[in-house]
C-alpha cells in the first residue's frame, strides 16, 4: 500500500499447515485449479473470481500445486478436518475470528451470546434495544 508496494493477499487468511477439510455435507461447494503460488489462490479466493460461491477458505496442495477453493471453513457444520502432509489450509480471517473490530459491521464470526451468556440481539431487530 503506497509507494508501489502491493499488499500480500495472504494477510487476510489464517494458515494451518498439513490440514485439509473434508465436506460431509454434499451441498457444500469446492472448485480446484492448478496455480503456482498460494498468493494466486488467496487473491482469487478474496475476490471469489470465477467461483459460483463466496470463498471462505482454500487448501493448497504443495505437491501438485493445485488450489482447492472452499465455500466453507473449519467452523462450518458438515465439515471435518483431516491431517494431510500435502496440504496447507488457509481460512479467511473474517470467517474464523470470534472478535469484533470497530463497530462490528464486517463481523462474520460465530459468537451469538454475550460474555454473560445472554443471546445477542439480531442486527435487523430494534427489540429490546434501538440501534
Automatic annotation (TrEMBL):
Q: Which residues form the Apple domain?
A: 5-94
Q: Does the keyword Membrane apply?
A: no
Alphabetic keyword roster? Disulfide bond, Kringle
Q: What is the name of the protein in this document? A: HGF factor
Instruction: Give the CC-aspect GO terms.
Output: extracellular space
Q: Which InterPro entries does this one have?
A: Kringle (IPR000001), Kringle-like (IPR013806), Kringle_sf (IPR038178), Pan_app (IPR003609), Serine_protease_kringle (IPR050759)
Domain named Kringle is located at 98-131
Example GO molecular function = signaling receptor binding
Amino acid at each position: 500500500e503506497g509507494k508501489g508496494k502491493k499488499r500480500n493477499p495472504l494477510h487476510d487468511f489464517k494458515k494451518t499447515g498439513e490440514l485439509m477439510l473434508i465436506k460431509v455435507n454434499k451441498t457444500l461447494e469446492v472448485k480446484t485449479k492448478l496455480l503456482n503460488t498460494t498468493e494466486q489462490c488467496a487473491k482469487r479466493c478474496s475476490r471469489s473470481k470465477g467461483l459460483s460461491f463466496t470463498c471462505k477458505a482454500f487448501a493448497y496442495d504443495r505437491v501438485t500445486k493445485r488450489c482447492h477453493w472452499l465455500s466453507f471453513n473449519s467452523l462450518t457444520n458438515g465439515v471435518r478436518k483431516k491431517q494431510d502432509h500435502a496440504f496447507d489450509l488457509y481460512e479467511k480471517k473474517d470467517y474464523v475470528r470470534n472478535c469484533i473490530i470497530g463497530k462490528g459491521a464486517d463481523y462474520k464470526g460465530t459468537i451469538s451470546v454475550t460474555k454473560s451468556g445472554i443471546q445477542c440481539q439480531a442486527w435487523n431487530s430494534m427489540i429490546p434495544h434501538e440501534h
